[in-house]
Design a protein that fits this description.
The protein is mainly β. Helices cover 11% and strands 38% of the residues. It has one helix and six strands; from the N terminus they run ββαββββ. A hairpin with a 3-residue loop joins strand 4 and strand 5.
Length: 143
Amino acid sequence: MTATLIPDIAELIPHQAPMVLVDSITAWDEHHIICHATSHIERDNPLRDDGRLSVFAGVEYAAQALAAHARLREPDLPPKRGMIATASKLTPCCQWLDEHTGALTIRVELLASNLTSSMCQFHITCGATDVLSGQLTALTAEP
C-alpha cells in the first residue's frame, strides 16, 4: 500500500464540515484504502438521531473512504457529488457506532469502478473489535 503524502480528506471529497466524518487516510493503493475516524464519538455528529449514532451510519463512513479513494486514483479530477445506491451484505456487530470510544478503522476494497459508479466491500473495526462490514455501490451524480 502507498504511504506517500496524503492530502487532507476534506480536499478529496465534496463534503464540508460537519459532514466530513473521516479524519485521516493511513494508506492506499489502486484497490484499497485504509482510513481512520473519531467523529462517531462527537456529540454534534450530524448523523446522530435522538443523541445516538446507529451502527449503520458506518455505511456513510465507508462511502466517504470510497470517495476519497476515487480522488486519490484520479487526482486530476475534481470531487464529484454522488450517492449511495445500495448497501448490502451488511453485518453489524453492535447496535450503536458511538458505543466504541476508540478510533474507527475503515478498510475499503474496490471491487469494480467506471465513470459513473463504484462498488466496494468494507470492514470497520475499533481496535480488534469488528463493528460493521458489507458492500456498497455509489453512483456519481455528475459524469
